[in-house]
């Protein structure tokens, strides 16, 4: 028997082989047929691309120009380009790993296959933080946009006590709870139905953005682009940091690894396709926005794109359409966020890192119903009662850590399993993964100090759960499946 410290090190670094991930995906649940088998492959390339677009294009683009343009001026267009380049570096890494390890679980599964069990648990904790807090924050804002829409259309609003964010005039955010419940009901019907509804909503919000471009370009004046960069490169960089988080959401594609057809080709195509669609819309909307209105007018313009169209047309009706687009956008994002979190928990439950309820799949719908109810209930409680503004940077921290791990995972997997079949390979390897890690590290470094303290507290809580439950119940630890013998990382 090895000494206790050596044994503990071996436990923390044990990895789940890629072959075991693929076997789980091929045969359903890794621990038998309990709970109705595995997830069903019903989602195609187009619908999966729309999942990525739906998770990424939220309300941010409808309002982000109001804060980004005062920082960079018309050069905010370049800020979006920089943000897109940063996101592209990570997206290419996601594309390779999704084609090599086409399973649910996103960065958690990739970390388990490359860096070991403890790293996988930490990454999984970061993803749960990202999805839960961002999902609740998005749901909270739904009441505000609903009020804006009903005010424009019918002249009435819901009382602030039940519609405003908790701690900001609200006591119980009822619209947020209703939204989460509706999304859970849709998700429990099945992945195919959920993907179809998401596709419809994404196409609607893209149509609203196209309408903005068509109307906004009629008020375009090249003089509005001068001076192009009044704040210099420092302003462009500052705006790039703020708009980068408009690209977060592309990792939602990788959570659907076991529910897509022909995953080794479909997953990388969807990741790259979603990035291209999102980048094109962001850059065009930004270009039209700064061309239709003088950049100095953006400061304090809370209505975002609606105010630009009102400036161009002199009418109020475009604002109602943009508000409707924001309402639909929030529904789409919330649906995908809850979906993504349930699939990450499904993978962690299947690996024994969480209780069995998270891996059980309903035999009729082919989705983890109990898992969905738990996630929905937790997010609904956060949305109803918890002020979430101060957790925004914490969400960003969790996301950037997960992004960096994906990029490191590409390098590790290339070294350890060079012969592994990959449907896509990162161009410019190893420069691109290294640059991705560098960009993520730079953005993490620029987060405020209190974010690091909160993140440390979250990690302490996560490690407590790991050492108290997950390490003992891990499938690798129990050696329940012969194909999952521990591979010790020296």
Number of strands: 0
Helix coverage percent: 55-70%
Oligomer: single chain
CATH homologous superfamily grouping: Amino acid/polyamine transporter I
Unreliably modeled segments: 29-35, 480-490
What is the CATH class designation? Mainly Alpha
Number of domains: 1
First-last Cα distance: 17 Å
Order of helices and strands: HHHHHHHHHHHHHHHHHHHH
CATH architecture: Up-down Bundle
- Provide the structure class: mainly alpha
Shape, please? globular
Question: Helix count?
Answer: 20
Structure in words:
- Helix content is 68%, strand content 0%.
- The chain contains 20 helices and no strands.
- It has helices spanning 4-13, 18-27, 45-56, 60-63, 65-72, 76-100, 107-114, 117-154, 160-163, 174-189, 191-216, 232-244, 263-292, 305-313, 317-350, 369-385, 392-416, 431-445, 449-473, 475-478.
- It starts with a helix and ends in a 12-residue tail after the last helix.
- The model is unreliable at 29-35 and 480-490 (pLDDT under 50).
For this entry, give a set of tags.
mainly alpha, Amino acid/polyamine transporter I, 68% helix, globular, disordered C terminus
Describe the secondary structure blueprint for this structure.
Layout: H1 4-13, H2 18-27, H3 45-56, H4 60-63, H5 65-72, H6 76-100, H7 107-114, H8 117-154, H9 160-163, H10 174-189, H11 191-216, H12 232-244, H13 263-292, H14 305-313, H15 317-350, H16 369-385, H17 392-416, H18 431-445, H19 449-473, H20 475-478
Helix pairs in contact: 3-11, 3-13, 3-15, 5-12, 6-12, 6-13, 6-17, 6-18, 7-8, 7-17, 8-10, 8-15, 8-16, 8-17, 8-19, 10-11, 10-15, 10-16, 11-13, 11-15, 14-15, 15-16, 17-18, 17-19
């Amino acid at each position: 028997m090895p000494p206790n410290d050596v044994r503990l090190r071996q436990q923390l670094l044990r990895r789940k082989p890629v072959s075991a991930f693929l076997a789980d995906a091929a045969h359903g649940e890794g621990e038998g047929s309990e709970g109705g088998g595995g997830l069903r492959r019903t989602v195609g390339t187009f619908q999966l691309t729309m999942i990525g677009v739906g998770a990424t294009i939220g309300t941010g683009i409808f309002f982000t120009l109001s804060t980004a343009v005062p920082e960079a001026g018309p050069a905010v267009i370049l800020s979006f380009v920089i943000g897109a380049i940063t996101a592209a570096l990570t997206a290419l890494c996601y594309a390779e790993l999704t084609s090599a390890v086409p399973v649910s679980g996103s960065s958690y599964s990739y970390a388990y296959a490359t860096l070991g069990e403890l790293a996988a648990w930490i990454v999984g904790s970061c993803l749960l933080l990202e999805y839960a807090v961002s999902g609740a924050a998005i749901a909270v804002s739904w009441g505000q946009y609903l009020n804006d829409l009903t005010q424009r259309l019918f002249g009435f609003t819901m009382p602030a006590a039940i519609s405003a964010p908790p701690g900001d005039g609200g006591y119980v955010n009822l619209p947020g709870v209703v939204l989460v419940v509706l999304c859970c009901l849709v998700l429990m019907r099945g992945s195919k139905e959920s993907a179809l509804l998401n596709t419809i909503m994404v196409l609607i919000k893209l149509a609203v953005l196209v309408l903005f471009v068509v109307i906004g370009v009629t008020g375009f004046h090249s003089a509005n682009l001068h001076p192009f960069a009044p704040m210099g490169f420092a302003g462009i960089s500052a705006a790039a940091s703020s708009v980068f988080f408009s690209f977060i959401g592309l990792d939602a594609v990788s959570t659907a690894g076991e529910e897509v057809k022909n995953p080794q080709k479909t997953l990388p195509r969807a990741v790259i396709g979603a990035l291209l669609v999102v980048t094109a819309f962001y850059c065009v909307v930004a270009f039209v926005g700064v061309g239709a209105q003088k950049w100095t007018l953006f400061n304090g313009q809370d209505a975002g794109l609606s105010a630009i169209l009102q400036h161009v047309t002199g009418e109020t009706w475009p604002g109602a359409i943009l508000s409707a687009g924001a309402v639909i956008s929030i529904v789409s994002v919330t649906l995908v966020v809850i979906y993504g979190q349930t699939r990450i928990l499904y993978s962690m439950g299947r690996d024994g890192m969480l209780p069995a309820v998270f891996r059980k799949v309903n035999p009729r719908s082919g989705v983890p119903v109990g898992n969905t109810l738990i996630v929905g209930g937790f997010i609904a409680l956060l949305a109803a009662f918890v002020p979430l503004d101060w957790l925004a940077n914490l969400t960003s921290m969790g996301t950037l850590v997960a992004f960096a791990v994906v990029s490191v995972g590409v390098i590790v997997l290339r070294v350890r399993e060079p012969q592994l079949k990959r449907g896509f390979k990162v161009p410019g390897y190893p420069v691109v993964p290294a640059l991705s890690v560098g960009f993520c590290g730079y953005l993490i470094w620029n987060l405020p100090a209190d974010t690091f303290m909160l993140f440390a507290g979250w990690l302490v809580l996560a490690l407590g759960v790991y050492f108290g439950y997950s390490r003992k119940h891990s499938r690798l630890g129990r050696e329940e499946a012969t194909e999952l013998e521990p591979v010790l990382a020296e």
